[in-house]
Amino acid sequence: MIQNKFGEMIFNESDVCNLIMQGQPIEELSGMIVDTTVDLARMPDILDPVPNLLQQRLHNSTVPEFHQQQQSNWHMPAEYKELDIAQHILGLCQTEVELQRCGEELLLYQERGLFDLLRYLKYLVDVMTQNQIIWGVGRGSSVASYVLYKLGVHRIDSLYYNLNVREFLR
């Protein structure tokens, strides 16, 4: 913590973490001035191991093996990892037409081994909603997926616009 020329106390991220760990109520931290500048001179030291780790992982496995390793490493709470995503999505359907479309799409997602991705997207949408983070209406071919619409990933009703999910899952 330092004092600027105006007499204001300037905290760094480490100071703030220490105060929180010491039990300082979050509400009392709201007016703090926090310096979040990055020391660019240290950046090469911080980032240097990253390319080597990535290169080592790529060198020790084939592209499909590397892809599978990355697909199996989703960072989300256990409740989402264990979620029966197909049942959840089908439970969001209100008509027979919606059930039919979601069923067909879920088979395509399952064939491609993408159920963990759907679980993660459910988690991501829930976190963004809880934290009042605003995201776009929809982008690209992903709006052709009615399953993603039901999960809240985008706001384009692909049934209404008669969009073919195969445009997205090629």
3D architecture notes:
- By secondary structure, the protein is mostly helical.
- The chain folds into two domains: 2-35, no CATH class; 75-167, no CATH class.
- The protein is 52% helix and 5% strand.
- It has helices spanning 13-21, 26-29, 43-47, 49-59, 63-71, 78-81, 85-92, 96-111, 115-130, 146-151, and strands at residues 2-3, 9-12, 33-35.
- A three-stranded mixed sheet has the order 1-2-3.
- It is elongated.
- The model has no long low-confidence stretch (mean pLDDT 84).
Total beta-strand segments: 3
Low-confidence stretches: none
What number of domains? 2
Q: Give the termini separation.
A: 54 Å
Placed side by side, the strands forming the largest sheet appear as: 1-2-3
Structural class: mainly alpha
pLDDT averaged residue by residue? 84
Largest sheet: 3 strands, mixed
Compute the gyration radius: what is it?
23 Å
Order of helices and strands: EEHHEHHHHHHHH
What secondary-structure arrangement, pairings included, does this model have?
Blueprint: E1 2-3, E2 9-12, H1 13-21, H2 26-29, E3 33-35, H3 43-47, H4 49-59, H5 63-71, H6 78-81, H7 85-92, H8 96-111, H9 115-130, H10 146-151
Parallel strand pairs: 2-3
Antiparallel strand pairs: 1-2
